[in-house]
Amino acid sequence: MSSATRRLAVVPGRLAALVLAGFWLLASPGVHAGLFDDDEARRAILDIRQRIDAGRVATETLQAETRRLADDNAQLRRSMLDLQSQIDVMRAELAKARGQDEQLARDLAQVQQRQKDMAQGVDDRLRKFEPSPVKVDGQEFTADPAETREYEAALAVFRKGDFAGAQNGFTTFVKNYPKSGYGPSALFWLGNAQYATRAYKEAIANFRSLLAAAPTHPRAPEAALSIANCQMELKDTRAARKTLEDLIKVYPESEAATAAKDRLSKLK
Fold it and tell me: Could you tell me the fold of the domain covering 132-266?
């Protein structure tokens, strides 16, 4: 057998040996276990990778959610700050409005007080022109303020002893207020002023006007007695006696009647 032939014969044997060796290796428990260990490791690695990838995704998702929550929190804080700012502005405006309301209340109170003062002032001024009740010589009546002032002014002049001035004052008063409740009293004082200035006839005329206008006036008995006094000053004894007798008859209970009786006893 040639060498080539021998080599060719050996090849199949080696091939078979290699096949047998491979089969042995595959059949060997250690080799089989090693192969399976590699697969499990690969699967474990893949599982770990998957878990890592899932964890990475979860982390990224959590980070994104955290960022979103942080943004929402920041937005919420900004909103709260804006709301607080609005509240502060509203508080300031409310305080200002309250201050304005208080000022308005004070202004209103001042206006109302001024109106009240003005109304009182108007009433006071009107009262100076409106008739008011008065009482003179026991007689009550209504008189205008100007009327009262003029009468009191003439009477004040009389009391000072200025009988000429009082005569002018009462003469003017009687002309200005012919229907005044002061009329009888004004005629009485006018007659007395004329008596003091020795204008006896004029005095008699005014005393008689008093008796004709108000025979029941409290000054009427005195006016009758004053007429008799003027007549005696004029030396008209007869007329004076008649006047005194009439006085005693008409006003018997008056003080003037008592004085008239005394004077009658002294007349000749």
Answer: 1.25.40
